[in-house]
Amino acid sequence: MDRKFDTLSSERIQPSLETGKAAGLRQRSHGPRAFFTALFLITVSLACGPAESGPPDNLGKEQLYGATEDRLYLSGQFDPYSHPDFVSLDKSGIQVSRKGMVLRKETVEALKKLHYRFKKDHPEIRFWVQSATRPFYSQKGIWEAKWNGQRKVSGKDLRTVKDPLERARMILQYSSMPGTSRHHWGTDFDINSLNPAYYRSGTGKVIYEWMLENAPDFGFCLVYTEGRSGGYQWEPWHWSYRPLAAPMLSDWNRLYEDKKIRAEFAGSSAAFHLAPEYVNTIGAACK
Ligand SMILES: [Zn+2]
What we know:
Layout: H1 32-48, H2 61-65, H3 70-74, E1 86-88, E2 95-96, E3 102-104, H4 105-121, E4 128-131, H5 136-147, H6 164-171, E5 188-191, H7 202-214, E6 220-222, E7 238-241, H8 242-257, H9 268-271, H10 275-280
Parallel strand pairs: 2-4
Antiparallel strand pairs: 1-3, 4-5, 5-7, 6-7
Bound molecules: zinc ion.
Zinc ion (ZN) is lined by residues 183, 190, 238.
């Protein structure tokens, strides 16, 4: 872990209070010219219908995926490090566990504001991003290391579990199948510790409770909440930027049903049908 954390460059980030209107408002003299301008504007607005500033769930394909094909984007089969809508966390002022991590620029902008507020409330507590975007191949690495016994799951070498479905379910307690992870999307990230016990007391508990109360103000939701029946375990560290992630989730489901989300990895033929159950068993605030 990189312990040389940047000293709060986020303090320089001021929450945006601009409405954009103040600068544009000027006193105008009322005359025939103003009347015709107003008439013209009314005509144009009637012809064009309501302004294109609908709720975030109405984001179009272009805004969500850029030039990347939706099914490839949503299954992590593209390069986020060269995608124009992704930015590095390195110069964001947000503390990170290692260099080179990226997220969607919208996620980073919201996270900078959240981080600023958190440091204001708790200047003594370190808050960092532990893991951010993970493309298909890196999720495949995690999955297959567990599948093949290179990485133990709850102290167990999974090669001893012969039933492929049972083996998949064991990995699925905490790890997604490649092609089904929200970490592909640039909207989701893990903070501080990946150990549930960390959030039960002390600093971890302070962070968790602060996030539950304040993160929604910045557009973030806890995906794997406590007390769900089914799906992944409770993940108090995994947060998601809902304005992008909610429409992405609904696209993922539609494309999965159309068999357009495809993924090949160890055990995929036995386990890939489980994906929707895990992808959709999430906290209500993220839906
Ligand atoms: Zn996560």
